[in-house]
Specification:
Elements: H1 3-7, H2 9-13, E1 17-21, H3 26-38, E2 44-49, H4 57-65, H5 71-76, E3 84-88, H6 100-109, E4 110-115, H7 126-145, E5 152-156, E6 167-168, H8 180-189, H9 192-203, H10 209-224, E7 230-235, E8 237-239, H11 256-264, E9 270-272, E10 278-279, E11 281-283, H12 284-299, E12 310-314, E13 322-323, H13 324-337, E14 350-352, H14 355-379, H15 386-400, E15 409-410, H16 413-420, H17 424-430, H18 433-436, H19 440-455, H20 462-498
Parallel strand pairs: 1-2, 1-4, 2-3, 4-5, 5-7, 6-15, 7-12, 8-11, 9-14
Antiparallel strand pairs: 10-13
Helix pairs in contact: 3-12, 7-8, 7-10, 13-19, 14-15
């Protein structure tokens, strides 16, 4: 390895072939774009893709590359797209669903693996979570052992896999009394219905099947680290980008961005959460920089000299933090200036950590209005939809309720040390200070504008924004009128009852 490769990150990636699982997902897209844009001499990027919803892997790749995150790369270096090669596979199936000829070809070429693929649903069945998150990790490791030039295998985990501990350090936390090999065997042999029955007992104190299987996957990586150059990167809650390659980019409604859109459109009126809880949010562009850097750091070290497992908590501990309550308050201030176009009511969301009050408010503010609106839609011979949507919102809130009513401290000394010791040459494209020094309100503004542009696909022209603002003001007036009528109704009932 040349001396430049040990000091300059793009040189390390030069002429290397990369394999990414989960390449069409949130992190996968951003990783693929960043590698091609900032490591221009990379040889090729293989993306493991499965056919889905009637689309072939080539069609899915084409759809992925139309995403706005690739616009900068498209304008600066369009030939880079020729380096992206889709590979038919499926992490939920045994041996990653790879064809024999593809396995042989990848074994010859690939030297770095980013294992990003996972099911992030908190209510996933135990069997599917085991196949997607645990068995896939084992199969990636087995595959990596066949690669002649492997220098780094990065496994994306989550800080919340350690949710049974209030303070999480950058070390491995084995799950006692649970063997990952037996767990895979059980999923492969036991009937689905039986698995469902004993899921709660099997995962024990783990919050859900996601954190349980991702926790076990870390043990898989640890067991293979004796013969493979392994890294575990644990991002916390991944949120829209700060500025790289564009501000406010995201491609899904998960996490706080979904909460902000729901509240900003007036659809989400109540959330079961502790307003004082400080959650750990990490911008996606910072996560991607961390992934590229730690893979480089592992890759420049010879495994025969150092075969230790490297673990990094990718969190903003000691950087910036914000409580859920403050996040909502700031967001609503921003939404007043940058209203969302699909507003159905005045933005206003109540936070409560009282289970009883939450159920009452859901009934009054979500269910009853949804029934009324759906009733009107039925009369107009239109498809009712609001009750179904509110049910999805309720299920999503319940799925994450544990994580928004508890606090964790994720220590990230290892990660900060790597960022702090970057050379000036690497700082420009891979430094972290620009990402964490952004003003909180400005960042939220970028996130909401990004949601309008990249998720809601709304027009940001001054004329359209003026129209949206007028609509928002009408919703505000309607909200006040309904409140006044409700008070009058209560007074009338009180007057009639006592007089």
């Amino acid at each position: 390895m040349s001396e430049d490769a040990t000091t300059f990150i793009p040189t390390f990636y030069s002429h290397r072939s990369i394999l990414i699982t989960g390449g069409t997902g949130f992190l996968g897209k951003a990783l693929c774009e960043k590698l091609l844009r900032c490591c221009p001499d990379i040889k090729e990027v293989f993306l493991l893709i499965r056919s889905k919803k009637g689309l072939t892997i080539n069609e899915r790749l084409k759809k992925m590359l139309n995403n706005k995150i690739f616009d900068l790369l498209r304008s600066e270096r369009p030939s880079s797209f020729d380096k992206i090669i889709p590979i038919s596979g499926d992490v939920s199936t045994k041996d990653l669903g790879l064809l024999l000829e593809d396995r042989k070809m990848l074994s010859e070429k690939v030297s770095i693996i980013f294992h990003v693929a996972a099911t992030v649903r908190f209510d996933e069945s135990l069997k599917d979570a085991i196949f997607n998150n645990l068995r896939s990790t084992r199969d990636v490791c087995i595959f990596a052992k066949s690669m002649k030039n492997i220098v780094a295998l990065l496994h994306v985990s989550s800080t919340y896999t350690q949710s049974d501990k209030p303070i999480v350090d950058e070390v491995l936390y084995p799950l006692e009394d649970v063997d990952w090999k037996k767990t895979i065997k059980i999923a492969e042999t036991v009937d689905d219905e039986i698995l469902k029955i004993f899921t709660a007992k099997y995962i024990g104190t783990m919050a859900n099947t996601y954190v349980f299987t991702k926790r076990l996957a870390e043990q898989v990586i640890n067991d293979f680290s004796e013969s493979l150059p392994c890294i575990i990167l644990r991002p916390s809650i991944v949120v829209p980008s700060v500025n790289d390659p564009v501000p406010g980019w995201s491609d899904n409604f998960n996490g706080p961005i979904g909460m902000l859109i729901g509240g900003g459109t007036g659809l989400l009126r109540v959330i079961y959460a502790d307003s004082s809880i400080t959650c750990d949010y990490i911008p996606v562009d910072l996560v991607i920089k961390a992934m590229i850097i730690v893979a480089w750091k592992r890759g420049i070290q010879n495994i025969s000299v150092d075969n230790s497992l490297q673990i990094y908590n990718c969190s903003t501990h000691n950087m910036k933090s914000i409580s859920i309550g403050k996040l909502l308050r700031v967001s609503f201030r921003v939404v007043c200036d940058v209203p969302l176009g699909r507003t159905i009511w005045k933005p206003d969301t109540i936070l409560t950590n009282s289970g009883l009050l939450y159920y009452i408010l859901v009934l009054v503010l979500h269910i009853v209005p949804a029934l009324l609106v759906d009733g009107v839609l039925k009369i107009l011979r239109l498809r009712p939809m609001l009750l179904k949507l509110q049910r999805r919102i309720y299920m999503s809130n319940r799925a994450v309720s544990y994580f928004v009513t508890h606090f964790w401290q994720f220590n990230n000394t290892n990660l900060i040390n790597i960022f702090e010791n970057l050379s000036a040459a690497n700082e420009k494209d891979f430094g972290y200070k620009n990402s964490v020094n952004c003003d909180t309100e400005e960042y939220i503004r970028r996130g909401i504008i990004g949601a309008k542009l990249y998720l809601l696909i709304e027009d940001m022209s001054p004329l359209e924004q003026a129209r949206v603002l007028r609509h928002r003001k009408r919703m505000d007036w309607l909200h006040e009128i309904i409140k006044i009528l409700f008070v009058i109704l209560l007074l009338y009932i009180f007057y009639s009852f006592f007089l």
